[in-house]
Amino acid sequence: MTLFINNEVVAKVLTMPDTIAALEKSYRALADQDAVCRPRIDIQIPTKDPKKIYQWGTMEGGSTGGYFAIRMKSDVIYEQEYNGAVTQEKYCVRPDRWCGLIFLTSTENAEPLALINDGVLQHMRVGADGGIGVKYMSREDSAVVGMLGSGGMARTFLEAYCIVRPIKRVKVYSRNPENRRRYADDMSRRLNIEVTAVDSPREAARGVDILSTCTDSIVPTIEAAWLEPGMHVVNLGPHEISAEVAAHFDVKVQQGLEGLPLPESNGFRKGIGGSLGAFVMGSEEQQKRLPRATRNLKLGEWPVYTDVLSGAKPGRTRADQITHYRTIGNWGVQFSSVGGLVYRKAKAAGLGRELPTEWFLQDIRN
Q1: Measuring CA to CA, which residue among 246, 33, 16, 298 is closest to residue 129?
Q2: pLDDT tens for the 366 residues of the chain, in order
Q3: Distant-in-sequence contacts of 46-51, Cβ < 8 A, 24+ apart
Q4: Which of 55, 104, 233, 365 is most exposed, with the fewest beta carbons within 10 Å of its own?
């Protein structure tokens, strides 16, 4: 039987410590050449609404551990400006609905094992990755977090930080006052720590050990003047950190390599909106409607996480260094490792909806 595993089941079986452990194991497999993944690539198609674009995105990966996964997203995307901040919004069918699926298969016999809603798993694996960076890059006595953003990612990021460091106090800022107050109340109760909503991003960044930006902004969210000695910086989106800010980091590490070895052309663009690379179509006029080009920080010379883990490259060596861990790269193998974990735990617990595997097979050679 092939399992359909929804977000409710994922939330029941997936814990943050297990997610962190699964990701670290997969990164060691990458270092040992026992795992492989393909960078995210999107396809963007103009819609009838000149302000909106259809976007299909996929990333994939697998390992000798037995699992392969492709993560698939179907979105209508558009840009929105609020109080000077530009964000990329998205939906499927209607606002407040989204479509993201993980198709998990066996690398031993090619069997389709599961279809998994990606919402909870996505938040958990990204938060866990941020936690891994904090584990290896921040000062061991880091206790105060400044959080920019109050959405689902900001919640799992903070949960992961609390697992790897003795977090005691958090200051959170987001553009919506009610959202940041709700975040402060919820996370205070959930994690049994002090979480306070503040009225500006500058206040959230002042005097913290870990500065974490978890937003959907396509423009920088942190200013260089906010950085302090000994601070560790984490970002979610590829555009939240500017080159000016990065120049102040003493130690910079990226999770993995996400280079796209395709040259730009009329049919393939890099760095538009939130996409690292996208195949595009349409007339010249239609292509003008594509999300604006954004300046993505170049990562080519940064060491990757496995370099630091193996000792090939140094991580933090002094308490006063400003360090940065960029949670970009290796996405495909993240979904295969965490997706495989969810599948095993759901199957052992008798959870998920069974679908006949024969539905996915055919007697015509493709």
Answers
A1: 16
A2: 999 999 999 999 999 999 999 999 998 898 888 999 888 889 999 999 988 999 999 999 999 999 999 999 999 999 887 666 677 789 999 999 999 999 999 999 999 999 999 999 999 999 999 999 999 999 999 999 999 999 999 999 999 999 999 999 999 999 999 999 999 999 999 999 999 999 999 999 999 999 999 998 878 899 999 999 999 999 988 788 888 999 999 998 887 766 666 777 777 777 776 677 777 877 777 777 777 656 555 655 667 777 776 777 788 899 999 999 988 778 899 999 999 999 999 999 999 999 999 999 999 998
A3: 46/281, 46/282, 46/286, 46/287, 46/289, 46/290, 47/76, 50/289, 51/78, 51/289
A4: 365
| Residue 268 and residue 280 in contact, taking contact as beta carbons nearer than 8 Å | yes
Name 175's Cβ contacts closer than 8 Å, sequence gap at least 6. 82, 83, 85
Cβ–Cβ < 8 Å for 296, 246: no
Predicted TM-score (pTM) of the model is 0.89
User: Radius of gyration (Cα) for the chain, nearest Å?
Assistant: 20
Q: Which residues pair with 82 in a beta bridge?
A: 85
Cβ of 355: how many Cβ atoms within 10 Å?
A: 15
**Residue 270: strand, helix, or coil:** strand
